[in-house]
Amino acid sequence: KIxxxxxxxxxxxxxxxxxxxxxxxxxxxxxxxxxxxxxIMVIDRENPSQTILSVDAVPIQQIDQTVLLIVINDITxxxxxxxxxxxxxxxxxxxxxxxxxxxxSLTQTLNHQVSPSEQYTTTQALSEEAExxxxxxxxxxxxxxxxxxxxxxxxxxxxxxxIAEECKRQFERSRYGTSHRLHLxxxxxxxxxxxxxxxxxxxxxxxxxxxxxxxxxxxxxxxKASRMKSNAKNxxxxxxxxxxxxxxxxxxxxxxxxxxxxxxxxxxxPGAGLGLAICQYICKLHGSILTVxxxxxxxxxxxxxxxxxx
Length: 310
Fold this sequence. Notes:
The chain is of the alpha+beta class. The protein has three domains: about 5-75, no CATH class; about 80-150, Signal transduction histidine kinase, dimerisation/phosphotransfer (DHp) domain (Helix Hairpins, Orthogonal Bundle); about 155-305, 2-Layer Sandwich (Heat Shock Protein 90), CATH 3.30.565.10. Helix content is about 40%, strand content about 25%. The protein has eight helices and eleven strands. It has helices at about 25-30, 75-110, 115-150, 160-175, 195-215, 250, 260-265, 275-285, and strands spanning about 10, 35-45, 50-60, 65-75, 155-160, 180-185, 195, 220-225, 235-240, 290-295, 300-305. Helix 3 (about 115-150) crosses helix 8, helix 4 packs across helix 5 and helix 5 (about 195-215) runs antiparallel to helix 8. It is extended, with a radius of gyration of 27 Å.
C-alpha cells in the first residue's frame, strides 16, 4: 500500500520529461475515451522516498457511464537499477579514459630525449596506469563470469601458507610493492583446507591490494591465518591494515556491486566497486562469509574462515 496525496504526484513521459503542471492523464483518458499506456507516475514524498509507478488505463463504456480500468506497477527498482547501470558506465568510462590519457602523455614524453632517471620515472608511471586498467578489466570480466555462472570452481587440498606466499610475491611485484610492506603471520599449526587455489589467491590479492589502496604510503599490511579459537576445525584468515578505515555508515554496503566509498570518489581513486563484491562471492562459493571490522583513522580487518581437512 502506498499512501500519497495529489500534491505528491508528478506525471512524466517515458523519456523522463515532466508533463505540464496540473495535467491529469487519467482524467484525460476518460474524457477522450482513449487508452493510456506506460504512463510514468512519480510519487515524491519526504518520507518514504520517491516511488516510481507505471500506469496503464483502459476506459470501458458502461450503459450510462465510462469507467476506467487502471493497472499500476511499481517500477522503482527497475529505475534504480537503470540509474546504477548508467552511473557505472559513466564511472568505468572515466576510469579508463584517465589512465589512457596518462599513458598517451607519458609515451609522448618518452618520444623525446630524456635522462635515464626521467625515463625510469616515466616507465614506472606507465606501468602503474597499465596495472590500473588491467585491474579494472579483470574485475569486470570476473564479475561477468560470476553472473553468468561461468567462473571455474576446482576445489582441492590447499595450505594457506602456499597461497599466502604466492600472494606476497605478486604483491611485491605490483604497483604497491615499493610503497607498502605485506607481512605474513601464518600459525605453524594451521591445517590444510579444501578450496579452489586460484580463487582463494584472487580473494587474497584483492584484499591486500584494497588494503594498500586505502593506506598511506609506508604503512604495513598483515595477512594472518590460524586455527579458529572458537572452532579448531576451521581456519580463520585475516587481512589487517592501518589505513584510513571505513565509516560505520558505509560498512553494510561495501560488498555490493559497484559500491564505492565516498572517500574514494572524492579522492579520485580508480576502481569499479567490484573487488569486494567478487571477494564476497568467492567466500560464499566456499561456504564462508567475508566480514569487516573497521574504525575511521585506525584501519580495517577483513576476515573469513574455511573448514579444515582433518
